């Protein structure tokens, strides 16, 4: 059941001019935070990149070492 907080945050993000990519990345961060997963020192990697239509779903995101993640972005 939604308490409306995320909806308000989403409207504020859109009004501030954030891009869809930025909003999708924030959605992944909130998903990990909501589940209580410590992501400190890690990158959230989208297996199918956002720029290619990937979404922030459990099956498409993973935590990775920053060096490994940036090496694969080339």
What layout of secondary structure does this protein have?
Elements: H1 5-15, H2 20-34, E1 43-46, E2 61-64, H3 66-72
Antiparallel strand pairs: 1-2
Description:
This protein has one domain. The protein is 45% helix and 11% strand. It is built from three helices and two strands; from the N terminus they run ααββα. A two-stranded antiparallel ribbon has the order 1-2.
In brief:
The chain has 74 residues and is mostly helical. Helices cover 45% and strands 11% of the residues.
Shape: globular
Give the proportion of residues in helices. 40-55%
Mean pLDDT: 87
What is the radius of gyration computed over CA atoms, rounded to a whole number of angstroms? Answer: 13 Å
Describe the sheet with the most strands: 2 strands, antiparallel
Q: N-to-C terminal Cα separation, in Å?
A: 40 Å
Report the count of strand segments: 2
H/E series, N to C?
Answer: HHEEH
How much of the polypeptide forms β-strand, as a percent range? 5-15%
Looking across the biggest beta sheet, what order are the strands in?
1-2
Total domain count: 1
Decide which structural class fits the backbone. Answer: mainly alpha
In the predicted model, the low-confidence regions spanning at least 5 consecutive residues are none
Number of helices: 3
